[in-house]
Design brief:
Belongs to the class-IV pyridoxal-phosphate-dependent aminotransferase family. The chain is an alpha+beta fold. The chain has helices at 18-25, 68-71, 94-107, 115-129, 203-218, 264-275, 287-296, 333-346, and strands at 8-9, 37-44, 48-56, 74-76, 79-83, 89-92, 139-148, 160-170, 181-185, 223-227, 235-238, 242-247, 252-254, 280-282, 299-306, 310-319, 322-325, 357-359. The protein folds into 2 domains: 4-171, Aminotransferase class 4, branched-chain amino acid transferase, N-terminal domain (D-amino Acid Aminotransferase, Chain A, domain 1, 2-Layer Sandwich); 181-346, Alpha-Beta Barrel (D-amino Acid Aminotransferase, Chain A, domain 2). Helix content is 25%, strand content 28%.
Length: 366
Amino acid sequence: MGGSEAFVVTPSASRLSAQERASALVDPGFGKIFTDHMVTLRWSEGSGWHDARVRAREPFMMDPASAVLHYGQEIFEGLKAYRRPDGSITLFRPEENARRFNRSAMRMAMPELPETLFIESVEWLLKLDGDWVPEGEGSLYLRPFMFANEVFLGVRPASHYVFCVIASPAGPYFQQGAKALTLWVSDRYSRAASGGTGAAKCGGNYAGSLIAQMQAAARGCDQVVFLDAAERRWVEELGGMNIFFVMEDGEIITPPLGTILPGITRDSIIELARSEGYAVREARYSIEDWEADAVSGRLRESFVCGTAATVVAVGEVRRLSGSFEIASKAPGPVTQSLQTRLLDIQRGRAPDPLHWCRTLGKIAGL
């Protein structure tokens, strides 16, 4: 299928009023409130992508034998739309989300979606629901996803899929400026292994991390951090965020790709840090070195990052053998500098020399 003229647009007859929407935006939390519309496309063997629609958000009718419910062929993305001071709306590096979406699709034996269609789908949703993008420090979280809906119980790639984009207004995932996070090191569970699906953004990776996250919460921790599956000593990532280590000489270390998700925020932080003169090294870093460097003072800061969380400091790490603190248990200068620079670019408060932002103009609902 071709350009935007292929999308059939049917505005919702029951969209919220401006007053109701304003009330919902006062304290939206994260992932609890949804906008009026959604975008859907379908794929079938022999026909490819078709039936592009922008319509009222509503439940899907699912047959109990739908393949996704049994074999988990499902992938998703997460990106944000920001309201700039001039009223325009900006997307941050959506092309990278489209490319990662297709890498996930390839790994999960699902059809790839042309990058132009991915971005058009997101922009069409913003054309109808642009008024949901909050002003100030909030954002509109966009969730593109795809799942297998063939009615079939055989173990093979499905022949029918649905792609959808929904949106949810969001406040800060973690309050900016709040205390640094406390992490729990999982000694039993791994998030991914070599040859597995760690680099794909699929639901099973997150489902498999939830029991470890529950253990972290039971120990008073904010998040869980996973070690490698083979040796259980190399720090990899959190349940939904990448991690960085800032050394006393200014070097920044982050775990290498392969078994972890190639975060777009991770990549952006690496580029921003290097542009500010920091040496960034993608290298394995062990839990033993993390503790020893924190105790000795060689490690000055540690932070995590992701689309939802942006950049958040780590203050304390707990594990079965004990715990250790990172410097003063507060966001350090490097963490704060990178967080501020990233947010300022995303929100149009600073120049965008790398042309990461895609500005959509002063969009209002149709």
